[in-house]
Amino acid sequence: MTLPHIIAISGASGSGKSLFTETLCDELRQIDTDVLVLCEDHYYRDQTHLEMSEREKTNYDHPNAFEHELLAQHLRDLKAGKSIQYPHYCFKTHTRLQKLTEVTAHRVVVVEGILLLASPELMPLFDLKVYMDTPLDICLLRRIQRDLTERGRTLDSVAKQYEKTVKPMYHQFIQPCRHKANIVVTQGGKNRPALEVIKAHIRNTSKL
Ligand SMILES: Nc1ncnc2c1ncn2[C@@H]1O[C@H](COP(=O)(O)OP(=O)(O)O)[C@@H](O)[C@H]1O
Ligand SMILES: Nc1ccn([C@@H]2O[C@H](COP(=O)(O)O)[C@@H](O)[C@H]2O)c(=O)n1
């Protein structure tokens, strides 16, 4: 089997990574492209051994919060044509679920997450690196809406987390990775020309 083409979609929380990835992959499937999506979020370290009050203090925007070594192993396995079992994560309890999903190797693998380009172990595994360059104030507005409706947070907790970790870690780890990307996407998940360019690149390089 041809090696999978692995694409990283990175950028700040709320920058449009998920929407861009979902749109890209839906459209790739419509043209019969065999594509698998992996989320870096699923690889947050488990914290069931900690009290809830301790879990709430964790810095989730630092690279150490992720089990990048497991994600790297999974990407190497997929490159070798092997199946993987990826974990699932709950943002309400800050723990991994008792659930694994088995997936087989695909021709195209799209991985999306905030700190993919900050990991020296992951970087060599990516064939294409995309950075979503969305102004931080827009990201914050989107994050407030999402965290209140989907992740069981309060406005106060979102504001405190943003000031304490989200914003400083963005400046320390995420934004400095922009220059490592092959493609920088402005205007979030709805940037039609950027989607077309990446689809064309995938068609040309993954020998589908
Ligand atoms: N260009 C855009 N215009 C309007 N809304 C957008 C755009 N890009 C993303 N969004 C919306 O912003 C929110 C956050 O986007 P999402 O893709 O979940 O971000 P991320 O995965 O980077 O955290 C979602 O509700 C998404 O639908
Ligand atoms: N238990 C957790 C784990 C992560 N976060 C926040 O999620 C953000 C990354 O996810 P996106 O889908 O927004 O890219 C990251 O900024 C973490 O702060 C959390 O709040 N709680």
Automatic annotation (TrEMBL):
InterPro entries: P-loop_NTPase, PRK/URK, Uridine_kinase-like. One of its GO terms (cellular component) is cytoplasm. It catalyses: cytidine + ATP = CMP + ADP + H(+); uridine + ATP = UMP + ADP + H(+). It is an enzyme of class 2 (transferase). SUPFAM superfamilies: P-loop containing nucleoside triphosphate hydrolases (SSF52540). The keyword Nuclease does not apply. Pathway: Pyrimidine metabolism; UMP biosynthesis via salvage pathway; UMP from uridine: step 1/1; Pyrimidine metabolism; CTP biosynthesis via salvage pathway; CTP from cytidine: step 1/3. Residues 6-191 form the Phosphoribulokinase/uridine kinase domain. Gene3D superfamilies: P-loop containing nucleotide triphosphate hydrolases (3.40.50.300). GO terms for biological process: CTP salvage; UMP salvage. It is found in: Cytoplasm. One of its GO terms (molecular function) is uridine kinase activity. Its EC number is 2.7.1.48. The keyword Secreted does not apply. Transmembrane segments: none annotated. Keywords: ATP-binding, Cytoplasm, Kinase, Nucleotide-binding, Transferase. Belongs to the uridine kinase family. This is Uridine kinase. It comes from Neptunicella marina. The lineage of its organism: Bacteria, Pseudomonadati, Pseudomonadota, Gammaproteobacteria, Alteromonadales. The gene is udk.
